Amino acid sequence: GDSVTQMEGPVTLSEEAFLTINCTYTATGYPSLFWYVQYPGEGLQLLLKATKADDKGSNKGFEATYRKETTSFHLEKGSVQVSDSAVYFCALSRPRTGTYKYIFGTGTRLKVLA
Amino acid sequence: DVKVTQSSRYLVKRTGEKVFLECVQDMDHENMFWYRQDPGLGLRLIYFSYDVKMKEKGDIPEGYSVSREKKERFSLILESASTNQTSMYLCASSISHEQYFGPGTRLTVT
């Protein structure tokens, strides 16, 4: 069945460090891929998305490229800030009868130290 | 901007009580979802609805029911709350393949 696997956290970085959070997926067909971010005490917010192979999603300095050959969608940021501290979820969606099916990873907590 | 609101941010209920969690979206989305979020388990789908009065079970529907009488509102019902239903509950709506989430309700059952 469909699944999303992302790296275990927590990830602790110093401010201005380079961030990579790994995400791989298993799915039939051609899913869309997403990164969501959850700040403390809040719901999930869409961070970026990619809908087909080789697409690059980007937002707020974060980037991820849809790699079909390696079934991956790794999240990167060149220089993290304290305000990036949050939980990051990788997810996929694909069509199903009447709607879409969504599969989420278990989340990776990022802590950025000043 | 899409707005998804949930009736309570924090809720404390006693074992055996009937609990209602309300979710409202303002963007005329067809699809609405209820998830629970637990540490180490990520998001697990409880129920979803792709039209008014239509509902389908997700991955963990046991102990829950839902109601969707109007397009903008999707309610999650715990018929008889139990301590293992203590969790964060997230509502979402979607158009196409993107989901939009509410702020969540942290429910504690004592």
Describe the structure concisely.
Chain A has 114 residues and is mainly beta. Chain A has no helices and twelve strands. Chain B has strands spanning 4-6, 10-13, 19-25, 31-38, 42-51, 54-57, 64-70, 73-78, 87-95, 98-101, 105-109.
Spell out the blueprint of helices and strands.
The complex is a heterodimer of chains A (114) and B (110).
Chain A: E1 3-6, E2 11-14, E3 19-21, E4 23-26, E5 32-38, E6 44-50, E7 56-59, E8 62-65, E9 75-77, E10 86-96, E11 99-104, E12 108-113
Parallel strand pairs in A: 2-12
Antiparallel strand pairs in A: 1-4, 3-9, 5-6, 5-10, 7-8, 8-9, 10-11, 10-12
Chain B: E1 4-6, E2 10-13, E3 19-25, E4 31-38, E5 42-51, E6 54-57, E7 64-70, E8 73-78, E9 87-95, E10 98-101, E11 105-109
Parallel strand pairs in B: 2-11
Antiparallel strand pairs in B: 1-3, 3-8, 4-5, 4-9, 5-6, 7-8, 9-10, 9-11
Task: Describe the model.
The complex is a heterodimer of chains A (114) and B (110). Chain A has 114 residues and is mostly beta strands. Chain A contains no helices and twelve strands. In chain A, the strands form three sheets. In chain A, strands 2, 5, 6, 10, 11 and 12 form a six-stranded mixed beta sheet that branches. In chain A, strands 3-9-8-7 form a four-stranded antiparallel beta sheet, with no helix packed on it. A two-stranded antiparallel ribbon of chain A has the order 1-4. The termini of chain A are far apart. By secondary structure, chain B is mainly β. Chain B is globular, with a radius of gyration of 13 Å. In chain B, strands 2, 4, 5, 6, 9, 10 and 11 form a seven-stranded mixed beta sheet that branches. In chain B, a hairpin with a 2-residue loop joins β9 and β10. Chain B starts with a strand and ends with a strand.
